[in-house]
Amino acid sequence: MKFFTLASVLGLAAMAQAHMELSWPYAFRSKFNPNVPEPLRDYSMTSPLLQAGGNYPCKGYQVDFNKPEGKSVVTWTAGGTYNLTLSGTATHEGGSCQVSLSYDQAKTWKVVHSWIGQCPLKPTWSFTLPNDTPAGDAIFSWTWFNKIGNREMYMNCAHVTIKARTGFAARSPSDPYNGRPSQFVANVNNGCGTLEGKDLLFPNPGPDTDFSSSGTAPPTGTCNTGKRFAQPLTV
Questions:
Q1: 4 inside domain
Q2: Domain range for residue 168?
């Protein structure tokens, strides 16, 4: 029989609360989401995706999309600027993050914004939806590739509603939603990895990208584009 000391129990509890998670918009199964009944709440939302890849995407919680506990938590308008909020304690010296949208219940994704470096070293991050973001119900995701520590991918998802924009603001020619890159995926047994000690340099971050890094590295292995990335190359 295995016995646990109070210190070890507290240590395990601290690990469960470590790392970072999406606290707004309210994610599927999140303790912050008032639509989620207590028995369904995941108190380890801060944990990374399984390295074997079995719970990509969304930790598997996209199955709640059409259920009361997974109903839409916010309505946004195409072309509008909005914030996401992150909570947690272990930032692993930052890294790189993306936010993406899916209209087919997490089968395919389009990147809305990328941050290369310093993410998630602050709690609030702003992004602007493309002017022609399709109207309807969608899944919003926040993904994070940590700079220091085990090679992991973090992902939380939320049900959001998008309203069509009535007018168009001047933006980049590369703004159209359908021209956006697919979500970057690595460290989930897909042949694609990231290099420790450097901020991930996304192969295709999209037109809306914030760069704040003193040292980046491209992915390792064969990633979204099918291109082989050489590990030694750093920027």
A1: no
A2: 19-228
Question: Cα–Cα distance between 192 and 203 in angstroms, integer?
Answer: 12
Distance (Å, whole) CA 205 – CA 223: 13
Q: Is the dihedral of CA 188, 210, 21, 64 positive or negative?
A: negative
Using DSSP bridges, classify how beta strands 110-116 and 209-211 pair: parallel, antiparallel or unpaired. parallel
- Cis preceding linkage at 232, omega within 30: no
CATH number of the domain where residue 45 is located:
2.70.50.70
**Residue at 40 is within a domain:** yes
* Calpha distance 44→59 (Å, rounded): 11
Q: For the chain, what is the domain count? A: 1
Tokens 């980049």 correspond to what residue? 172
Q: Kindly compute the dihedral angle of the four CA atoms of residues 199, 158, 102, 17, in this order, to the nearest 10 degrees.
A: 30
Strands 81-88 and 20-24: antiparallel
pTM for this structure? 0.87
At 72-126, the pLDDT tens digits run: 999 999 989 999 999 988 788 899 999 999 999 999 999 999 999 999 999 999 9
- Look at residue 8 and tell me if it is in a domain: no
In sequence order, what are the residues at sequence separation of 6 or more whose Cβ sits closer than 8 angstroms to the Cβ of residue 135?
A: 78, 162, 163, 164
Confirm whether 53 is domain-assigned.
Answer: yes
